[in-house]
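Researcher: I'm preparing a figure for a lab meeting and need a structural model of a single chain. I don't have an experimental structure, so a prediction will have to do for now. The sequence is pasted below. Please return the structure as tokens so I can convert it later.
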Amino acid sequence: MAFSSLTERFQTVFFSARMRRFCIRILTFSLFLGLLLLSARADLLLAKTKKQKPKKENVPEYVFGWTQVASGFKEITDIQFHSSLPDEMVVLEKKGKILLWNFTNKESKLIADFTGNVETRSEEGLLGLAFHPKFSENKLFYINAVSKEAGKDQTFILEFRWDDSKVIRWQDRKRILLRVDQPYSNHNAGQLSFGPDGKLYIGFGDGGAGGDPYKHGQNTSTYLGTLIRITPNLDSNAPPYKIPEDNPYKNSPGFLPEIWAYGLRNPWKFSFDTKKGDLYLADVGQDEWEEVDLVLKGKNYGWNIKEGFHCFLPKTECEKPGLTDPILEYDHDLGRSITGGYVYRGKNLSKYYGWYIFADFVSGKLLGFSTETEGKRKLTVLGSTHFLISTFGQDSSGELYFGDFSSGNIFQIGKKIEIN
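Model: Understood. Here is the structure written out token by token.
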């Protein structure tokens, strides 16, 4: 509009009608050319100063079937199976209940109730359960929960004895294995699991807020931002746990001896391949990238220096010795909060035997990749749901289940139909 007003004044004062038309064309063309050159220069400068987002790969899509197998739960955080509990499934609720679902009578039984003892703000709650390797004999199990003590939110790793003749309460715990201060109510992680080596692995987030303000991810003197590995002590008169002799930092100054791996942001679920023993971990991203890590002894997975394969802090030239990249990443166009799953070892989906199957909590997509390939894996979308998939479970036959945080329903993954 300013250009039109200026031209009219120019015409009135100086030129005849014919000259006015000629000069208007010249002036219009000159201004257009000038704007074009400025725009091109701006684009060139932007290209030089802004890191371009990698070109998206074509992600194949399929549709997995799923069947609802259980209902009536509230805010599911974990699903576990054990061979000594045939035809049953253990379900954890964020607010503090442990329930046992029976597939035959399709009813749930309350096993434990920690309501009132568990903090439930944001990502806090009753977050994980693991059965002792000798659970069939000793009935011991362990939970990961956030509770408040002395005015502080803390992660508690507690040992209990299974007793289905009563409802287990917080005060029934046999011992506290570990407790860790949580500075914020998010990035508390929550998974714990016994590996094929009989050791207990526990995942901790970086402690929360955003961007890791306390730099916990690269601080090896804190549990936050790490995966630890311990051996629970069954002798009630001994310390609650031992440090395994082969832990990578048992005798390293500046490192907690429990640390197995570090540089994690918020490992929301990890699992061991029941055939090969490999450890897969899903780490929730910050601004752009979700990732899956193949966890190896003593490795640093980069947070908060890197997010996925990319620089986070600093934004450029972040490569340094000792950082381990993920085996897979996806950006926030596909999903915004990864939920870790399992390597599939069942029979219902024979084509996907050996695939790591997981999901995104926000987008509801079921995702997967073959674990038989080396290096960076190729991602496949296995299904698109409207669920908030908060956790997976794997039964003794290797079949997979997932929980919908919103509805409280649990589904078993079934056959797929290829759509493209």
